Amino acid sequence: MHVKHLRTPDIVIGADTIVTVDEQILEKPVDKQDAYRMLSRLSGKEHSVFTGVVIIHCSSKDNQLETEITDFYEETKVKFSDLSEELLWEYIHSGEPMDKAGGYGIQALGGMLVEYVHGDFLNVVGFPLNHFCKKLAELYYPPLKHTIQHTKHDSIPSVDTFESLSDGESESSSFKEHKGASKLDSPSGVICNSENSSGVRTGSVVPLENQNGVSDSAAKVPSKILDLMDGFKASKALFVASKLKMFDHLKKRSPLNAVDIANEIGTSVCGTERLLDACAALGLLEKTPQGYSNTDSANTYLASDGEYSLHGYIIHSNDHLWPLFTHLESAVKEGSRQNHRAFGKKTEDLFNDYYQSQEVKQRFMAAMHSIAHLTARDVATAFDLSEFKTACDLGGCTGALAHELTQIYPHMKVTVFDLPEVIANSSCFQPSERYTAPVTFVSGDFFTDDLPEADLYILSRVLHDWPDEKIHVLLNKISTVCRPGCGILLAEMILDDEKKNRSTALLQSLNMLVQTEGKERSGSEYRGLLEEHGFSKVKIKLTGNLLDVLLCIKI
Ligand SMILES: C[S@@+](CC[C@H](N)C(=O)[O-])C[C@H]1O[C@@H](n2cnc3c(N)ncnc32)[C@H](O)[C@@H]1O
């Protein structure tokens, strides 16, 4: 959900869950599950615990910020006395306030404050009822085209409801729109274009068999399987559009038509037009009679100078991961990495592959940097690290996380420790002067060289590169230099113990199979490895971002 327009007086609705305990606000919203856990622990006692919606009043009159927390249980007013207006707006615009429990606010009168809901109203208020009912109906009673309707509610933004069985989900964010698009060449479906309340054109699929009212659900290919079969085409379309810098051109100037873009990037008009249309259907671009433009998300994430650009990681995915994944079958049969098949050379060490050529090294570092930059804030704030005066980010690469730590903990001295080839190349990834914080870069090999002294050792996406034997070598080295009270902070995609729920992390584990000797691990597996080296008090935080965080302390 995006709160697109704010009315005067500026009232913003839809923050995530905030929990206050004894009048202390945990500044960082916790996720809903955490909140419920806390709530159940504290219920019945005299604590003020609130889950639900934060309504922030910004009064331009006296510059006072007041936060009203509505809750299933109680209501109260808390003053954000230590939160500056600037910070608040940064927070609001970071997109964080727009998900999960924030949606509860728009169920009631709060809905009047929101002018637009991009996506499905019912899906932002909790259980994805719309999607659920739609899927049930698809299974048991496919809708006729003329039954699709839109419902307008008085007190809430105009929305599609499950009564209409429209494909509201496909509009929920520009990046999710690929669901409808992926069915373009589906043998079982045709696209019906409809206009939603925000004027967004959406494609909802009506099975062919419904057009004459005859249901033949046995012949229907499940949409999830179709999505997966199409997924590689969608990925490649994104990769190629990124590689050809289409999003960069459109960020500089838009709308542009296919001929303009083809001329600028030196490609065929017919091929360019098809790629642009595919990107528009995937929700990456907007297409109007005037031409193509980037969506907001494309400007932020896909343009190479976007605030949270993933361009580096996308190019790495295209040039490095794609060839490796074409050998997934061999990797599965043999249980080992496929670099020799993909790139025709056998090296002992994964990082040798990357650092032998300046071009590949630059590409790899840019890829690491883009993900680190996007996740650094969540990693750095997952736990209060202010008690640690010094930190060493082992395998810290470009220093993106190190810089974030120094922003959040100004008194912390942070060292980045990485291989000499990386340290020599790190200068081109440093933030502008204005933000330059005192991060020290030290080169060395963490398996063989002395480690810099620190109170906190950080291993971000390092352990997943290695098999258990190597991890024991590294943890043993860290444990030897750690005094009691020192800590290790891991940032990884942490699997659930049964290894069945987190598809992004499980796919990432396949990614590790094709190129490393490592794998993604569960919280219990990391805990086991760390406890063998004297680290306990393990705390795990699932951030909801690409990386989760584990903190443990040497006893
Ligand atoms: C997957 S990258 C992660 C980079 C960074 N921590 C992040 O999260 O973006 C692994 C990093 O470990 C570094 N590395 C690998 N082997 C190393 C070694 N033996 N000694 C020091 N650093 C090493 C690599 O150079 C690379 O920067």
UniProtKB/TrEMBL annotation:
Q: What is the protein's quaternary organization?
A: Homodimer.
Q: What is this protein called?
A: Acetylserotonin O-methyltransferase like
- HAMAP family, from UniProt? Maf
| Superkingdom to which the source organism belongs | Eukaryota
Q: Which SUPFAM superfamilies match?
A: ITPase-like, S-adenosyl-L-methionine-dependent methyltransferases, Winged helix' DNA-binding domain
**Region: Disordered, residue numbers:** 159-187
Query: Can you name the source organism?
Result: Chrysolophus pictus (Golden pheasant)
Q: Which GO terms describe its molecular function?
A: nucleoside triphosphate diphosphatase activity; O-methyltransferase activity; protein dimerization activity
Q: Which Gene3D superfamilies match?
A: 3.90.950.10, Vaccinia Virus protein VP39 (3.40.50.150), Winged helix-like DNA-binding domain superfamily/Winged helix DNA-binding domain (1.10.10.10)
Q: Where is the O-methyltransferase dimerisation domain?
A: 226-304
UniProt KW Hydrolase keyword: yes
Keyword Methyltransferase in annotation? yes
Query: What's the source species' lineage?
Result: Eukaryota, Metazoa, Chordata, Craniata, Vertebrata
Q: Residue limits of the O-methyltransferase C-terminal domain?
A: 325-536
